[in-house]
Amino acid sequence: MNIILIGPQASGKGTQAERLAARTGMKHFSTGEAFRAEVMSGSELGKRLKRCMDSGELVPDNVVNEVTRKAVEQNRERGLIFDGYPRTKEQAEFLDRITRVDAVVAIEVSDEVAVQRISSRYVCSKCGKGYNTVTLPPKQAGKCDEDGASLVQRDDDKPEAVRKRLADYHAKTAPLISFFEGKGARIIRIDGEQPIEEVFEDVTAALRV
Ligand code: AMP
């Protein structure tokens, strides 16, 4: 089974994908995480990616699709939970060519809530683990639970970049829900403004996992 989690920034896709992967044994595949790891590695590709990501721009489709092809090839048996991919029609068409999408889980939150959540969002400067000072605080303020490194705000979580990303979400990504509906995927709409635990209950009940 392959599942896409779709929703605006800070809708909780990453958190839900992580939990769903732990529950089902499926592979959690986040293009954003894959790119941040590449940036951390300091490679030439990483430097190009950083420029796109810091300004809130989308990474070019051919780059994103190549990374995705590898993940799909390596996880055909296990099944994938796509988090942050696809984001454009070209990416959706590419994914549809290389594999089957069984379900799309649309996590719905308003722009107001997304902006509010982003302003309280932090990541570990070392391992990249995500936190939210309101909904998912670290045990010790400002420090990662895993490795104790300091928590920082992502450059693409700064207000100008956030506006750009929300606009891209509405213009390019949200319409992909009907694209996959047309391809026979189950569409599951979830109220993402509920607490994390309730969102997860709704997601797992709908997927029967
Ligand atoms: P995320 O962590 O999913 O919000 O992704 C962080 C950044 O990585 C985005 O703002 C984009 O610059 C880039 N990115 C991640 N996934 C994609 C994608 N599917 N298509 C284009 N750019 C992406």
* Helicity, as a percent range: 40-55%
Strand order of the largest sheet: 2-3-1-4-8
Class computed from helices, strands and strand pairing: alpha/beta
N/C terminus separation: 11 Å
**Any idea what the CATH superfamily is called?**
P-loop containing nucleotide triphosphate hydrolases
Weakly predicted, low-confidence segments: none
CATH architecture: 3-Layer(aba) Sandwich
CATH topology: Rossmann fold
Instruction: Average the pLDDT over all residues and give the rounded result.
Output: 95
Any chance you could write out the topology, listing elements then pairs?
Layout: E1 3-6, H1 13-24, E2 27-30, H2 31-41, H3 44-54, H4 61-74, E3 80-83, H5 89-98, E4 103-108, H6 111-118, E5 121-124, E6 130-132, E7 151-152, H7 159-173, H8 176-182, E8 186-191, H9 196-207
Parallel strand pairs: 1-3, 1-4, 2-3, 4-8
Antiparallel strand pairs: 5-6, 5-7
The structure holds adenosine monophosphate.
The site of adenosine monophosphate has 18 residues, from helix 2 and helix 3.
Q: How would you describe this structure to a colleague?
A:
The chain is an alpha/beta fold and 209 residues long. 48% of the residues lie in helices and 16% in strands. The protein is built from 9 helices and 8 strands. β5 and β6 form a beta hairpin. α4 (61-74) runs parallel beside α5 (89-98). The mean pLDDT is 95. Adenosine monophosphate (AMP) is lined by residues 9, 31-32, 35, 52-53, 56-59, 64, 84-87, 91, 156, 165.
